[in-house]
Each structure stands twice: as structure tokens, then as C-alpha cells.
């Protein structure tokens, strides 16, 4: 390893020579003298000695002068030779351009702006904006401006800001503001130094005033119309921003804004975050002072952690760029001075700064266990509303305005701002403070750094620039990480309370998923930034992840070394060349490597295909290989080679393992003639353990040579080769080395060879060991001779940084590393880095390593050296070796000791005393150590098991406390994981899992399992959830559904880390959509129903997030943890928290009631009713009149029933508490708590019941397809009838829900502490609002239905009735407002309270359904008319079927419904009712037997007055079976195999006493415990992969 050197003085020795003077407190010591701004240079030190500077001279100035050259030296260095001048036509060109001369004479523009800002800023209160070398865009002193404000009359504003969370909690914001006296914001009262604090304080006060005005308890369900009117002067004359805001804050806000150069008052994003912070410790400056952990919010408005975490996270993002402006200005100077080495240093520094920036995202975490970093997505909604601009003229308060982004765009020379986010960013740039604008302009318009780098041709500069581009705007860089973070939070927010999103994701979003649309917009903006460097990008950024596109550097294997005494070298240290690449890395980073196939594998393929003589032939490339070829060219900084040879394809393509796709391709090419291939295809697990070479070697022997030759034609340009062999994907390896060089010249990896036995099809009886592609290339079998061959070919590599696996900033913190096998790989870089930058005063480093035997103890020599020197403690567990080694703390030695073999968990338990202290936080009196785990999932499980036991043994009395202690360590980000495993082939012969089964596994109740579906497979991710780096909620929001789309968007599909882990959690394949033969109607119904099922699941899961918040428990809680500890949102400072708890519940419940659970009972359900009614009527043959369940009527009646009104009145009472200035809530606080608990519990129960019903409906599709009937019409008839019944039951459940909820009241004096006072308050309020005399007031129900059915409860309606209602709904639906075109408008829309305040997702989905219904009716108008006019002929059910059949015969299969030229929509005669009633009675009596046995529903029955609930969910199989009994089901030699789930359900059906139960059927919690829903119970195993069943339809000619 080369000796590290100081980037400034070139002095060697590993330490910056300036880093050793004690006690020197240079403000600028964090950024060294000009030219020495390497970010590691942050220690005080003797600069004079280090740089040979005379004593008494200002070192920085001296260095600056020493570096400064004459203009001539700079501009006339390259004057050509006499000869060259002689050949020149125009010698004038040799004179430097005026612009260059002037610029060199004046200095770099960006530096000049900075110097000016620093000179003028301190004396003028930084009016032009903060800009300095040391602090960048952040204030040099966070206390200065608030301090100045506090010393001025403007103090009244900051004092009120300090009271604000309390005022919000008590609902007293507006009174407090109105009570303020008017203090002007002019220079005589508010000095310049106080301006920034004044604008922040006043801006926040205006925003919260506006917010309170809009959200005053009338925005939800409300019966009171009394509004608060302040008794004070207003600022209406000061412009539209300040209309309706008291003059006491409006006037000074207007005045200070103008003094800061703001034409209209507005609050920027960084006003609210960066300028609203105070530092805990201003001396804690490494690596930057404004870190999350070193800041507090000065003036929170709401005062709870969502706001704090979010604002602090945003401030951290800006603060992490503290040294960025100086680095950028220095880059510009070096470009001007054409100083390549200086530029290199500064660019490396800038890259390090950018690479650090995404860390800020940690501080915004959706994981409830993340302590103060926890930001629940749905609470974010409130902040979104608060931060809305005061008027439509204001610039939006958006992160797009963050100066670091805008200056980086300028630095990289971004010219395209066409995307929505691009255009908005540019617009917001014009609203930045003047200094910042000037600085960005200086970078934008002068001395393009990327151009200089390109022109220099220096590969190091180009490599570092590429690293900067990636770190800033790449998929794994800041922008990519930002996008993923936003995706996750938005998904949760959109499914819950958020009504609008950032960006243009309104109606432009075709899928009703705003987070996907936002994701797309982010991608577009990323592409605009990437294009200048990566050319025309044809794929989305996330599609680059896990592909060759991530490997942007060229390298070579330099050596492979033994790291232990294992003669097989199953683990090796592999060193790669990094010379001239510009690659830098840090401990924890990973290398992605594009492996090359072994020569032996290439040879097998070449031999079988006869390519031996063609290895250097050019191959005609398909699109993917062409992109690869271009990529190779770009990486080599040469024009892309337009071709690749046969050898290239063989070496760089995917040859092993054999995927199903690859095997099918060969099968087709050989026209199904190879028995080997057929045998391979019949396998029961994929992929197959073997290679393409193995397959071809076997197949060539059993295939007709003519066919072979035709398939693999060597005569042409061999385009089949590129089609057959796809480009290989990269493998990831942890970096195992640390370097102190500015640009490291090598990198070490620790490679464990993945070995497997060749499958029996190829190996026969023999046992043939094979190596994985990547590990086999890097660490080949010693006997293979591969590593003896010279590595001439370049390999492609890339570097990535996991956010959650980095060393602590605090170098004195103790670190414990837990590793299994090759999991030691990253820890070598950790300990090397820690020990290199430390002396013995550093925190302890402890390694706990589990390996099989002494022979496999890696890096023993190196570790022993550290142990001997007392620098490390090493503890070992050998699982198959009794020759133990024990660490002796006294002698600093590893001592031999015979002991029984053990695993790492035993070792941890043994060392439990120390380990448990490391786990305990400092606040708990522990050491607050950092714990890192690396290895397979099994290693992780074992380590966690050991740690829990250790903590239990030493620090806690119960397992519950143990979990709390461990969770705390996770929350403090002291537990970090790097868990990975080699993927394993998955079986494909398991029974498949129906959608309904997946849907039931949402894991939202304690001790239940959580499943997700991804690309046809189902995974049980319950145990993985706590490990998910993005936070548990991200994964939970996809529970129970197919989340392939999110998986793709989040680039999980290509991510080896994810895909390999997933194999561990595989449960089975998802039952594919049934083959609906030729019935598109059935297919459409299937799609519609499955979408509805999905909505039920997503709604349930999303509501559960809010439910736990409302109940005061974290997400692992249940209702019994109600009002628990610090997570209690209901109280603040021992008083009821109206601002958070009461308001949150009010918003939540209002949303549900106003929308009437609109996601489930709104247009989506109506669309189902419409299409099912139509299908039923249409399939039931002419001459029949259908009577249909009155589903819409039931829903309408339920929503407007007296019970619903009572419920709404109760919620509106809660709303009154929000706006009631006399804070009467304290007289009904316990009543509200109880009411909230009960209602959210009932909400969830209702949602669970609806999901259960939807699941039954889903299963019916499978069952109906398994039955043998005469025509699809019959199928449609029975299925539609069944589904209609299911919907009817759902509607009735809604009815029962209201009835039950109406039993509870907010007003429960007996619950209160002072019942008499509660009673008196009620009377007093009623007297005041007049309701004492008029007790009934009309509830304002946002979603009052467009029609109200006649009171024909329990009866059915005819087809016309259904159509009329649906048409009325469509006509009455509000037109969607046009999509806002500016960000400002979007934010305003978000703050407005729409009448039906449903979530963004539900709104989108409902709009979609409205459109679909409208289109459906238009399209089928003719048929609807025809069906409405059918004569009434009494027919039996059998007769319907016969009629259907006759129709089928008449019209081929199914005739399209003839358009009707006459008649009206309402043409049905009431005389037909009798016959239809008879028909339905026949069906109901014998087929849909619940109708007769339970004459539903009726306002009746129980003594408590609760309506009888619907009977348990209908068993679809029993019901369908009964229906099919009437349809001459053809015998299949035995009964149709009903799934055990179905049988179990039918058993339940006949059990007495079940019919009154409202609880859903027991959900299978473990995936196996309940036979009713076990995965293995599906009937659908018939659809597992069978040869040919999934193949694309390829015409195969007979071969023999
Ligand atoms: C974040 C991370 C860090 C890592 N760090 C290290 C490290 O430091 N050291 C180290 O040695 N390894 C590390 N790995 C593992 C490494 O990336 C490779 O997974 C490992 O080397 C095996 O790759 P291979 O090409 O040799 O094997 P492959 O050729 O990919 O195959 C190996 C085995 O997996 C099976 N297999 C391959 N593809 C699939 C598939 N799609 N589905 C199912 N089964 C499949 C094969 O049949 C075979 O049995 C790390 C992995 C990750 C994700």
C-alpha cells in the first residue's frame, strides 16, 4: 500500500501536518488554508511548521499569495514553438481572450461573490443572504439573529413563537395572535441583525394563523356554524397574502420582508428549517456543525416529533453542504488557473461532501422504533397544510429551492429544465437571497468545470467528476435516495390523509397512485441532470440499478491471496487495480463487479456451438447488448465500439445458473427436439444448478445435427447468440480495505467462493462441484488453473455506499463487530480506518467472529498484531472445531483452549456482560456502543438471539424490557446491519396461493403474519420487517397485496441484496389469473374484483397506521396499550392536546364519515354493482326480468340513517372542541378518549369484515372456473349473482357499523373526573348555541349521496332501478378540478379543505371508477335499453340457462347485444315484478340460502337495539355448488375438489350459532396453523408451471 500523503504539502505520514498544534482555535481550522480544503483537514495543527511559513505571518494569506501566479504564468504557459508559430495563419489567436484576462486579474467570480458577502454580511445582518467560506449557506452563528430580535421590541413575536406548541395544543392560537400589540418591523425597532429571525418568527405566526383559520373544527363533520371572529385590526390592505391576518403580525411581516428584498411576504423552505434551529454544541463541528443530533428546533409550531424530525432532517440536508460552496469556488479558481492537481483535490472534497448528504435522510424515518427520528407519513399531511403559501402569488415553499441543489445544478452545467420539477426549481432560484443568486450565477455562467475536465483528458479528473455526478444525481446518490424516501412517505401519506401531493400528480396520474407519479417526476428531473454526462438515457434511472450501468469504472484483478490456512482457499483476499480511475471509498462501501465467465464455461459453449474458430467475429447485437457496448465505450472515455465479439458475449454474458427463460429459448431453437432440454424443463426448482455450457454439451448429443445447425447458424452475423445469452448482472462485495490516499490505487475484497453441486441431469451419479460466477471468477478453485491465467481483460466496477452501515462520527465511541464467515469482509475496512486515524485513546474495537474451524479464521495474523498491541479485542466461536482460541484481556493475546464447538450466539452470551453494556444507551447508563452485524440471515438471527439473551441475563428482568433496550439501540442508529445471502433456487411445485390468501396476511394485528406478493411469488416478510432499512411502515403499506410495481420502481427487482434475501422468505407462487377461455366479460369482472379486493386491503392497512397513533401506541401496540407513555398524542404538559390528539381523531373520523368510507362504498363499489348487474341481466337471457339486491339503496340508507346522523353529531362535537375557545374539552376529555378508542376499533373491524367478504368473492372466480358448465353465460350468471350477494352483505355491514357506533357518546359524565361540571358545561353550551331549545340540527355530511332510495328495506330492485341510480350518481358527481400547473397552486390546493376529504389515493381511484362507469354506460347504452325493455315472462332458473344456451347457439358463442333503436331506459313495466320476484325467490331459497334463513336486515332484534348483523361470510363454494347443481355439471369422475379452505368454510356455514357473529373468519396467522387458509391448501396447484403453459406461443414444427 502506498504511503498516504498530505494533499497540500505532499508531506507523507498519514496525518495532515497541520493537525497537531494543540489549543489552536481557528475558526477556519475546519477548512484549511486555501488549497488545503481536504475535508479530513479539520483538526487544529501547526500550519506554520507544516507548510514552512514564517512565524507571525497570517498562514492562510501567505499560502494564498504563494499559490498566486502572474497572469502571464497562467495564460501564456503554452506558447507554441517557433516552428509551430511559423505555420500559424493567425498569430493573433495566441493572445488570451479579454474575458480570461479580466477574470484572472479579478479573481474567480464565485470567490469574489463570497469575499464580498463575507465583508458586508456581518455588519448588515446578512440581509443579502448567508454566504461564507466556513459556513456556506448556513448562518455563522445560529443564535445571533434570534438574540438580536429578543433584545428588540420584536421580542413579542419570538415570545409568542415559544408559546406556540402550547397554544396549538390548547386551541388558542388565534386569540393569542389577536392579543398582540402592533410593533412595526422598521429599522428603528427591529435592527438589521434581527431581520432573519423576525421574518422566520412572523412568517410562522402568519402561517399558523391561516392554518388555524382553515382548520377550526368546521372542516370535518360539523353541526355548528359559529366561527371565531377576532377582535382586532387586520392586515387586509397589505396585499392578498395578509388578508384575514391580524395587523399585529401582518404589518411587521410585510415590513421585514421588504427589508430582506422580498417583494411580497413569504416563507421559504429553508427559512422554516435551517433558520429555525439552534445548536446544542457550537464547538462540535465534525464533520459539520448543523447535524441532526447537534440541533434543536428553535420555534416548533406543533411541537411534536413529526415536525421536529422533518424540519431537522431538512436543515441537516442543507447543513451537510456547509463546505460545499467553498469547495465549488475553489474548483472554479483551479479551473481558471488551470491547476489540475488543485482541482482534483477540491473535486474529491466536493464528492465526499455530496456522498455525505444522503445521511440526512436517516433523520426522517417512517419506522416507529426510530425514536425522535420517527415521522409518520400521515402526520406529514398536517405540516403540508401548514406550509401552504399565503397567496397564489407566493413562491411555493419547496425543497426544490434548497441552495445546495441549485448550485450543484449550476456546477454540473445543467441546461435542461423542462420537467415539472426542473422548471419549478429554476423559478424558485429567482426568489433566493441575492448573495446566493449571485454565487450560483457565478458558477453557472463562468468557467464550466465539467468542460475543463473533459478537455483535460485526465482520467482521474473524469473519474472523480463521474463520482460527483453519481453522488449528486445518480440512482444511489442523493437524488436517488431522496426519491426513494419521498416514495415511501408519500405512499403512506396518500393512502391515509393526504389529499394532494407535490408535483403534478393530480389527475395526470393514470394509476391513482400519486407516489408513483411523483417518482416519475423525480426520475425525469434526474435524467435531465444525467444526460449531459450519460448521453440520451433510454431507461429509467431505477432500471439502471443492479445492472452494468452501475459499473462505471474499469479495473483488473491484481492478486488473489490466502487469508487463512484453508488449502482450498474457499475465502480469498482479492486485490483490484484502481490506478487512474478516480475511485474513492470509505469503510462500509461496496464494490459492484461485472464478473467474467470462466474460460472453462466459455469453452463448453463454444465447443457445443462450434464457435471455436469464430471467437473474434463480430456479433450482431440486440438493443440490450448495444447499450452494453456503448457503456463500455463511455467507460473507456472513447467512442463506443459498435460491436462485440463472440468471445465478449461468452465472457460477459449470463451462462449460469440456467434460468427457465434460457432453457425455453433453447427448447424453441431446437424445436422441442432435445430430450435433455425437456428433462431440464421438467425440473421442480429454478434456476437450475448448471450452466448453458452443461446444457448445450448434453443437448448436442441428443439432437438432430440439422436442427442444431439451423438453430445455431454460423453462416450469418450470429444475431441469435446475443438473443440467447443476456448480459450478466453485477455482483456486490463489501470493500475490505481502508486507504488514506487521496485517490487509492488498489482495493481489497474478501471473497468467499459460492459452491454448489452440479444438478444430476448433467452430473449423473458423479458429484461435480461448481463455483458461482462472480465468486468463481474472483476466487477460482485453486486446482482449476483459472487464476494462473493472466487477467488481461478489464472488468467493470462501481462503488456504492449503504446508508445504514457506516462508522460513527464519534471516534471515541466503542464499536463491536459481529461477523459470520465472510461477513468479516467489511469489518477489515472498519478496524483499519479506526486504528489508522486513532491512537490508543480511541473507543474500543471488539470483534466477535463465528467460523467453522481454525483453518477458516481469516486475517488471523493481522488481527493478532492488533490484539498484541492492545488495539482490538477478538472473540471467536468455532462451530466445528474444539481447538478454541480465547482472548486474554490481561496479556492481550489469543490463547489456545480446548472447548466444545459453538455458534456465535453462545459466544455472545458468554461475553454478555460487556455486550449488554454496549447495547445500553448512555442515557440508560450503558456504553452506547455501535454494533454492526454482517453475514447471512442465519448469522443475523443467531447474533440477535445471543444479544437478546445477553441483555436479558445482565440488564433486564423481562424479555419486554430487553426488547425495549435493543429497540432503543436500533432507534439511536447504533445497531447496523449488512445482511446478505447467496440466492438459492426456489421450488416451483408447491401449491399456489390464491390472491385472497395473500390478502388475509396483512399482519396488522399482533402475532399475525405479513405477506407480500412480488412478480408471481409470495413472501412472508414478517421477520424481515424490523430489518427493512426504509422503515417498517414502507413494507407494511404493501402488506397483503401484489407490490411488484413498487418493487420495480424502487429497483428492488434488480437489487441482488433484496432478491437474495427474498429467497429466504419465499412461501409459494401466487395463483395465476384463471384462464377465462374466451370470456372477456369474466376477465373484466376478475380484474375489477381483484382491484376492489386490493382496495379493501390497502384501506385496512392504511387505517391501521392511523389507528395506532390515535390509540397512543406505537405500531407494535394494541388497544390495550392505549394512552401509553411518550407516544401518547392525547396530552401535552398534562393537559388535553387539542392540537394533536383531538384534532387528529376529528380529522380521521370526519374523513371516514364524510366520505362514507368512500374508497370502499363509493364509485368503486358502484362500478362493480353496475357491471355485475349488467352482466347478470345480459347473461340471463331475453325475456327475463332480473330482481337485484338493493345494494346501493342499503348503502345510501345506512349513510343517512338516524344512526349515521347520531354518529356524525358525535364527531362534530369533537370538532367543536377543536374550535371552542373556552376549551370545554376538559369537561369531556375521558369521553373523547373512550369514543376515539371505540370508534377506531370499530372502523378497523368493519374494514376487516369487508376484506373478508371481498376475499370470498375472489375465491369464487377460481371455483366457478373449476366447474364444468355448458357456456360462459352460465358461469357469468352464477358468479355475478354470488358477487352481488357478497356486495349486499358488505352494504349491510356498513349499516350495522353505524348502528353499533351510534351506541357510543362523547358526553359521558360518569366517566369524567368531575361529572357535575361536565353536565353543567353541556347545558351551558347548549344554551349558548341554541341547541338547548332546538335539539336537532342538520349534520353537514360531505358525501351525502346523490339519491336516497325509497324505504324498501330488505327488498330488491329491478335492473332499471340500478341503472337509474348509477346514472344519477355520475350526473351528480363533482367535476374534477383542473390540474394545477404551478407548484404554488398545488400547495395551495393541498391546504384547501375539499368538501369530501378523502385520501389522495381514494380520490384518484374513485375518479377512475366514475370515468369507467360513464364510459361503460355510453358503450353499452344500446344493450341497457334492450335489457330494460325485456318482456316479462315467468321463467325458472333452468329456463334462463337454457335461454342463454339458445342464444349462444344462435350467435356462434355469445351474441353482442343488439343496439336498440326504440324504447326508453325506463321502459320496464312494473307488471314484471312478480315474475322476477319469483325467480329470485327460487334462487334465494335454494341457491343463495342466506336470504331465506336470515331475512336481512331490519331495524330490529336485540335488546340493545343493535341490528342483527349479516350472517357470516357466504361460502362461495357451497353457494356456487348449489347453483351449479342446477346447471347439469358434467361429472369428472368424482366431486370437484374443493379447497380445504372452502370445505372448512362450508363446515362453518352449517355450524349453528355462527350467524350472529360480526367478527371476520379466523385469519390464518402463521401461514400454516389454520387449515382454513394455509397456503398449501389451495386447489390451484393445477396451475403450477407445466411445460409450455407459460411459454409464449411459438409455432413448433414437427421434427421427425
Ligand atoms: C450487499 C452484499 C455484500 C456482499 N458482500 C460479499 C463479500 O464481501 N464477500 C462475498 O464473498 N460475498 C459477498 N456477497 C455475496 C456476493 O454478492 C454473491 O452473491 C456471491 O459471491 C455469489 O455470487 P456468484 O456469482 O459467485 O454466484 P451465482 O453464480 O450468482 O450463484 C451462486 C448460487 O446461487 C444460485 N443462484 C444464482 N442466481 C440465482 C437466482 N436468481 N435465484 C436463485 N438462485 C440463484 C445458483 O444456482 C448457485 O447455487 C455480498 C452480497 C451482497 C448483496
UniProtKB/TrEMBL annotation:
The keyword Metal-binding applies. Residues 990-1071 form the Cytochrome b5 heme-binding domain. It is an enzyme of class 1 (oxidoreductase). Its EC number is 1.6.2.4. Residues 17-32 have a biased composition (Low complexity). Pfam families: Cyt-b5, FAD_binding_1, IDO, NAD_binding_1. The keyword Oxidoreductase applies. Gene3D superfamilies: 1.20.58.480, Cytochrome b5-like heme/steroid binding domain, NADPH-cytochrome p450 Reductase, Chain A, domain 3, Nucleotide-binding domain of ferredoxin-NADP reductase (FNR) module, Translation factors. GO terms for biological process: L-tryptophan catabolic process to kynurenine. Residues 1-32, 1448-1472, 1489-1511 are annotated as: Disordered. One of its GO terms (cellular component) is cytosol. Its cofactor is FAD. This is NADPH--hemoprotein reductase.
